[in-house]
Amino acid sequence: MVDGLGIGDVGNIVLKDRQHLSQDGLIIVVLAMDAATGEIVSGPEIISRGFVYVRESENLMEEMKDIIRIELSKLEENHVTDWAVIKLTIKDTLKDFLSKKNRRNPMVLPIILEV
Q1: Of the candidates 23, 47, 55, 80, which lies 20 to 30 Å from 36 by C-alpha distance?
Q2: What is the pTM (predicted TM-score) of this model?
């Protein structure tokens, strides 16, 4: 968790994030939105690093995509196009689902591409 490049240059927050990543992994959610309408054009695609082996957990990955699609459709119905709200919704939804499903809490990083 320590990079060894310097002494005292890594703060407590950085060390805490590194510990969190090493224990629970990372989930990246990528989706593309139409800049004019706010509609989802493609995705969500899920990338897992240090959380689960994707080929052995395809059902879990599909469940996560389905849950994200449901939440995104709710946001579309309410005409929510604010990226911060969408990202927060994705993060909270996945964290709740994964903590209930397998009692792990990976770091969730939503990425929204504007097309």
Answers
A1: 47
A2: 0.78
